[in-house]
Every structure is written in structure tokens, then in C-alpha cells.
Amino acid sequence: MKEQDIQGIQLLLSTPKKIAIIPHRSPDGDAMGSTLGLYHFLIKNNHHPIVVSPNEFPEFLAWMPGSETVKIFEKDQKNCTKILEEAELIFTLDFNALHRVGEMEKVLNTLKVPFIMIDHHQSPDDYATYKYSDTAYGSTCEMVYNFISFLGKKSDIDKTIGTCIYTGILTDSGSFRFPKTTGTTHRIIADLIDLGVENTEIPTLLYDNSSYGRLQLLGRALQNMKILADHKTAYTTLTQEELDHFDHIKGDTEGIVNYGLTIKGILFTAIFIENADEKIIKISFRSQGDFDVNLFAREHFNGGGHRNAAGGKSEVSMEETVTKFEDLVNNLKI
Q: What is the rounded CA–CA span in Å between residue 149 and residue 10?
């Protein structure tokens, strides 16, 4: 961050304030980890923060410290709108375009208070008063650790804050396997472990609490997988009927897209998930190497993200969406 921005933020935070902290819609481990980590830090510094999530977060993140305090905009728009309108400062974490918060965008566009963005995605919009935006980082949680350090408050990071930050780094780095996991990332993790963060317990809480239905859903997704071997691509689908059959709850499809990349010779993978309520097909893309799924998602599926991990959506049927995808892949050089 620029020194003048740090000084400006320090001035804003020099007196107690009502602060709203916002993750993106359908928040993942990094979004929840960064917002809750910042939430605990701000409480420690005598502020009055509230995390307002656009919609529900996955059940497998409900163990995180402070998760019970999170307000859900979709469930209580009146109260959440009041919180946002009364806030003296807004933090937006793990996204860089206001459309990523869904219906909440209408409220945010009316607010006249300062916004602070902390995010690691490409092509940020220009809504924030202060931006800490850098695609070099593998997670927003790593940036929150740095942000607290920039403010001269690194000593405030304790086990509770560290647990939140650790969770986001772990999930967004693919358990430290993705390319943007650096030596600095591991040094931060070591620091958090030294603070008492339960590095052996957190992966269990995140990954080893599957329901029987979730495992069956994974099995169906793997059965549905198609391989386009000539184009080093794999993809799978899940219809609304299949989701309902296996008693799907939010978070059950998390990580399924990555299975395609475990197949020898596959460099590009996707999952297409039908959402009947929203009348869309939700899409996740992953890649290994040089193929840019962020660009692919932006150009063809109204989405975006990172070079090797992105998302998108389609407003036509599953069959039409998959046909479009296959046609596009047939013209790619991967």
C-alpha cells in the first residue's frame, strides 16, 4: 500500500467508529476468514464492526470465531440496510466490483462514507476511497495480515484473529499447493502457528465433516465427468434434480471442480451447477499452467477471477451451456 493511504486509514481508525465489513456473495473460506479476522482486529481497537454477508455462508465455516455474529442481508434486508446506512466506514474484502454482492449493491451505491477495499482479484472497479489491491497474493487473508502490519498493529494478531486468517490462506491456496503460495505465505503461517492457531484441527473442521449426502453428490459429479482428452480438458455437471436428490446444502459442491485436475494430462477443468431458483447455471473453472481461466470466464461466461481459478454463469439451459463450452474448447490451444 502507498504510505499516504496507510496514513489516511490510520487517521480514519484513530477514533471509534461503526464499521460494516462485507464479503462477496456466496462467501468462501477466504472471504469469511478475512472479514472475521478484520472484525476481531477492529473490536480489539475499540471500534464497532459488523460483518454483513450478502447471503448465507457454508455450514462448514460455521465453527469460525465470530461467525455467529454475521448478519445475512438476504434474510433481513431491513436491519442490514440500517446497519449499512449507519456505518461510518465500509470495508469490502475479497471482491473488487460491487455487483459481487448482489442486491446489496443498491444500498452500497447510496452510501457517502469512505470505502476500503482489500482484494487480490484482477481489474478492480473504482469505488473505494482506499485500495489495497494486488493480484500477486494467493488470498485476501494474507493481505489482511499485511494490512494489520502496515497499520503498526501486528502485535494485535492473536490466536482468534490468526485462526480466521489461517483458514482463508489454507482454503484459497488449495492447502498450500497453488502457484501463489510463496515463502512469505509459509512464514506467515509459521507465525500464526506460533500464536497457537490449531493448524492440525482446522483442516479437519473444513474438510472432514462431510455428510453422507455430500459424499454421494461428489460420487454423482465424478460419474458425470466428461474428458476432452485432445484438449486436455475435463468437466462435470450437476442438475438441480441431482442436488435435490442428495439433500444438497450450501457448500456441498465446494472443491469438486478441482478433481478434474487430478487426472493425468488434464490442464483445464470446469463444473456446471444448475440453480433453479436463480434460473442460471453456476460455473467454476480451474486450470494448471498458462491457460487463463479468468480471461476465458470474462469473455464467454460473464465471470472472472484469477488466472488459474475463476467463475461464471450462464442463463441458458444446462444442455445449451455445455454445448457452448465444448464448442469453445474445441477451438482452444491448451
A: 12
Alpha-helical segments (H) within the chain: 3-12, 29-44, 77-86, 104-108, 140-150, 159-172, 183-194, 201-207, 212-223, 240-245, 293-300, 318-329
Is the distance from CB of 268 to CB of 334 less than 8 angstroms?
yes
C-alpha cell at 320: 445449451
pLDDT digits (tens, 9 = 90+) for 19-31: 999 999 999 999 9
**C-alpha to C-alpha distance for 99 and 106, rounded to whole angstroms:** 9
* Rounded CA separation 73/76 (Å): 5
Instruction: For the chain, state the CA radius of gyration.
Output: 20
Angle at 172 between CA 259 and CA 162, to 5 degrees: 140
52, containing H or E segment:
strand 48-53
pLDDT digits (tens, 9 = 90+) for 127-174: 999 999 999 999 999 999 999 999 999 999 999 999 999 999 999 998
Give the global pTM.
Answer: 0.88
